[in-house]
Structures are given as structure tokens and as C-alpha cells.
Amino acid sequence: MKYAFPDNFWWGSASSALQTEGAREGETTWDYWFAREPNRFHNGVGPQHTSTFYQNWKTDIQLLKQLNHNSFRTSISWARLIPDGIGEVNPEAVDFYNQVIDELNEQGITPFITLFHFDMPMAMQEIGGWENRDVVDAYARYAQICFELFGDRVLHWFTFNEPIVPVEGGYLYDFHYPNVVDFRRAATVAYHTVLAHAKAVQAYRAGHYAGEIGIVLNLTPSYPRSQNPADVKAAHVADLMFNRSFLDPVLRGEYPADLVALLKSYDQLPACKPEDGFLIAEGKIDLLGVNYYQPRRVKCRDSAVNPQAPFMPEWFFDNYEMPGRKMNPYRGWEIYAPGIYDILVNLRDNYGNPRCFISENGMGVENEQRFIENGQINDHYRIEFISEHLTWLHKGISEGCNCLGYHMWTFIDNWSWCNAYKNRYGFIQLDLETQQRTIKKSGEWFAATALNNSFEKE
Ligand code: BGP
């Protein structure tokens, strides 16, 4: 069967500044943490060892072209542009991002730019990071500077990438700096991130720029083990905490009332100011990026909560391992392609069918060298993964979902937050020794699909 996509569908991939650029000047929390606890990073490989995009941007953009990308998302590094977060703008950073943006446009590849992809300037973290409202203001200033510098040539902006991840990693589950475990502080970080987002949207609107502004959220559909009311309730709470805590403010301009009530009843609400509500209402977006990797399966708790243990989302559900689920064993994530369709249908039916696109989807695989045939990685499993997800995406579009494109994570194999180069995601293989780039089979498959705006599958 042939799966054809709408005209002007966005075909591309996503990456981020910290994971690709290398050679950074402004210190981020990642540099700081790595210098102190290198053991927390896979094989002790830190954020300075990335895929050298800072040196190779021009030839890398040629490779994007070869993959027939018509769009590409990356981020600006706040710490590179404004090393101390709040002071002087670094002119070399301005030159670098200008060159990248201009070259992308020249090559017919529309730049999609994220303002914050997990990379907090250390100077901002030192004053409390997202727990401090001064950092919210500093971020709003940084966003405004980016709009002024690049807004004439960048028409698709994203305030944050997966803003729930620094909340989970840094304040609940100990996989990002500052390794705090404290729900109320986590809720404050999440809340201030929403305020920062809204301030950036406000600044963008005030500047009357020609483009649009949105956010990228990792939406993990919450599937209950069964339709038993206890399981359904567990899935509902997980959905409130991990999806709707950002989805509702950015699409509806307000928080779900039952999330607020729940946190209030456990005395976990962040400090709010009366004027915050107006600001959040102004943070509604033009375009939603959806990152989808895995579903969340939950069931009601089997045991009573230990009231001495820290308050956690898991007070309300247990994670559920569905028998027969298909796994990506390298990353430990379930592969469930219909999830992409369920997300789109939920957006269509419950959120007014917003303009959206899949901004990340992907499969990290270890030791891909074993698949080399005639000098090229034959990643047939990745082609299978992409085409399966695309068939569900296609079904969503054919049923009226407003999905405008599909971007893969990622372009060239890159450094990952705690896994360094353990799992490879790229369309292009990176030789870490020589920095040589070689297109994988999936890259060729994707290039053909983008060119034809369609693909064939049984
Ligand atoms: C997303 C992030 C990316 C990327 C990807 C793969 O959550 O936006 O930055 O890293 O996941 O995940 P990982 O690198 O943890 O395997």
C-alpha cells in the first residue's frame, strides 16, 4: 500500500545545541556536573565530546540536504549566547547561529529553533535555576534577544524542549543535576517553566514577528492495565502529572482543575502570584511539537504508600509491564506505534485539533557496527520502526488530525545526556575517532520518502 502525505509536509530531524555543537564557552549544569561526577555519565564521556557541529556545520547542512530534509530543528545554547545567562551577548555565538540559520535557509531547509533544550547556564543554576523567578525573567530576556537577532529568518520557534524532563531528572528521579528529590520543588520548577514559556510567547507577540511560536512536549499516553476504575484512575493521575501539567497550560491557557486540587490536598502546590493566571493564559501557542518515544502503562498501586517516604507521583499508581510488549532493549523503552495515533486523536478531540507535528521519534540502538554491510550500517530495524509509526501517523491525518510533519531523532549520531554514545539514533553514523559521517540505510530510506512525500508498505 502507498502512504502519501499532504503537500508541504515537514520531513526532517531534530537535534540540540549541547548534544552536537561541542567547543562551548559558557558553562552549563552539564559541564559542572560532569566535572564533579563523571561516573554519572556512560563510560565517563561528557558533554564536551559531541559531534562537532560547531566546526562542521556547513558540511553537515550539506548532509541534511542529501537526506532531502525540508526542515530541521536544533536549539540555541543560552550559555553560548549569553555565558552568564543575563549579561553581555557573545558576538561569536551570534555569528555562529547567523551562519547556521542563513545556510539552512539558503539550502531550502526551514530552521525550527528551540530556545531551551535541558541546558541551563551554570550561573543561572547557581542562583536557584527554575526555582528562582529571576531566572524566569533572565530567560524571557534571552528569548527576546533571540527573536531580535534571528526572528527575521527563523519563522518557527519553540520555547522549550520536553520541559517535564528537567523536572523529572533534576527534582524527582535523580538523573539530571541538581539531583534533588522533592516534589514541591519539582512542582515549582515546572510552574516557573510554564511562566517562562508564557513570557517568551508574550515577548514574541509583542514584537509582531512574521513567524509562529510553540513548545515541544514529550507526550506519553497513559494506558491503564484494565478498565477497572482503580486502574483508570491511576492512569488519569499519571496523565495529569506528566502530560497535562504542560499540555493544558500551553493549549488551554490554564491548569487542569483536578491536578491543582490533587496537589493542594497534599500541600504540594508551588507559590503562585495573582497575576500568574493572566500570564499563563497569554502563553497559548501556535504550533505544538510532539516528541513520542514510548507509552506509559500503569495500574493502581498494589501496596499502601509509606507516609515517611518522599511524596512522589507514584503514590497514585504503579508502573505496569504489559505481557507481550515489544521492547527496545537498549534504551529499555516500549515500542508502541499506535501511541502516535492516540496522541493525535486526543489532541483533535480534546484540544481543538491544534497545528502540530511529530518533533521527535526514534530508536537508539547499541553497537550498530554489527549491522555494517559493504561499509554501511543496514539499520532495517529503524526503517521498520519509522515506517510503522508513519502508518499510524498517516491514519491520524486521514481522520482529520492536524499533523503537519515528522522529524526524527536524530540527524547524526549524537551525545546523549547520561548515555553518551551508548545508543545511536542517527540517520548518519558518526565515527568517534575520525568524526567521519556515513549515511545509514535508514537515511537513504528517509531521503526517498521525503522526496516522494510517500512510501510503500505491505
Ligand atoms: C529526548 C530528548 C533528546 C534525546 C532523545 C533520546 O527526550 O529531547 O535530547 O536525547 O530523547 O533520548 P536519550 O538520549 O536519553 O536516549
What does this protein structure show overall?
With 458 residues, this protein is an alpha/beta fold. It has 15 helices and 21 strands. The protein has helices at 17-20, 29-36, 53-66, 78-81, 91-106, 122-126, 133-150, 164-171, 183-206, 229-252, 257-265, 276-281, 338-350, 380-398, 441-452; strands spanning 2-4, 10-14, 71-75, 110-114, 156-161, 212-218, 222-224, 287-291, 296-299, 318-319, 327-328, 333-334, 356-360, 365-366, 372-373, 376-377, 403-409, 423-424, 428-430, 437-439, 454-456. The strands form seven sheets. An eight-stranded parallel barrel has the order 2-3-4-5-6-8-13-17, surrounded by four helices. Strands 7-9-10 form a three-stranded mixed beta sheet, with helices on one face. A two-stranded antiparallel sheet has the order 1-21. Helix 3 packs parallel to helix 5 and helix 13 (338-350) packs parallel to helix 14. The longest helix is centred in the middle third of the chain and has 24 residues, at 183-206. The radius of gyration is 21 Å and the shape is globular. Bound molecules: 6-O-phosphono-beta-D-galactopyranose. 6-O-phosphono-beta-D-galactopyranose binds at residues 16, 19, 161-162, 165, 218, 291, 331, 360, 364, 409, 416-417, 419, 423.
